[in-house]
Amino acid sequence: MSTLFTRRKVLTGMGLLGLGLLAGCDNSPKLNFKYGKDLSDKIMGRTFKLKNTQGETVTLSSYRGLMPVVFFGFTQCPAVCPTTLARAAQAKKLMGRDGEIMQVIFITLDPERDTPEILDRYVKAFDPSFEALYGTPEEIAVAAKEFGIFYEKVPAGDTYTLSHTATSFVFDTRGNLRLGLSASLNAKECAEDLLTVMEVC
Amino acid sequence: MTAVQHLKRTLIGLSLLGLAAHASAQVQVQVSDAWVRATVPGQPSSGAFMTVTADSDSKLLRVASPVAKDVQIHEMSMKDDVMRMGPVDSITLPAGTPVKLDPDGYHVMLMGLTGQIKEGDQVPLTLTVENAKGERQTVEVKAAARGLDGMAPGKMH
């Protein structure tokens, strides 16, 4: 039996005793996820500084108390970006009331074409709570590097498309990176792992 | 009207126009489940998806649509959770094998959209298919626009 399972059992017991809330916080450095990758020991994604679609500067600490789910993409992306955002919206619904603390943050990798107006309409078409962040191409490059995101422009006729990393990065409510969700997972699998992140507060 | 129905209509129309003799050399192309992803206002591009089946070995050479200034065929692939994207010259259509253009592989990129695509819109697409002898023909398809999440209207949102 894994240590996590044991801990869960203990926590359940505590919860039943009404001691759940305080004692339930888990500061352990490792988490066992069923589907995603545990990133608890990775130092990444902490210092991004970008703008939201209202033009306000935001950092990771702007989302304290929420569970940020960060995904990099671009609105002219035909497949993986809308699929990932739709999956996040569905996972949020599957989580019920717990889903309320989930904050999807879509960071554009195409700041030259994705205006704040288009970005805002785009992410909100999936869920009104979703946020999009943008910056100068240099600021985006710094943020992408922080997360180890690969991206490159691919010529397509007179214009271009982008190749990019499709992982969603999940932080706990204290701003510790916890989980990487690959594009191959479905909404239900994501929801299960997201609930595991929530157990650490 | 589904894409298949529309295609059948087109084919019937063509025969009625006395082009039937020509049809012997033609590839029978079936297009099903054609859909386009809706856009938000100002979004300059979108993707179109469908399943194409040809009755003899052929190629999908290009796609055109009045809703976009530039239409390209792209291929998406995933490796180590990195999504790679890029244009391809054509898509091989082996005889009798349904070839899927879906968000996990090939798709049609509608670039330079002339306006917003709204859920439920019928987007005309013209497919150019080339048979093994190098003869070309076009197939008209109407693709229904689904929501940005790819869900058909009326399904779970």
UniProtKB/TrEMBL annotation, chain A:
Q: List the disulfide bonds.
A: C77-C81
Quote the Gene3D superfamilies the UniProt record gives. Answer: Glutaredoxin
Report a single Gene Ontology molecular function: metal ion binding
Please tell me where Cu cation binds in this chain.
Answer: C77, C81, H164
Highest taxon in the source lineage: Bacteria
Sorted keywords for this record are: Copper, Disulfide bond, Metal-binding
Q: Which family does it belong to?
A: Belongs to the SCO1/2 family.
Q: What is this protein called?
A: SCO family protein
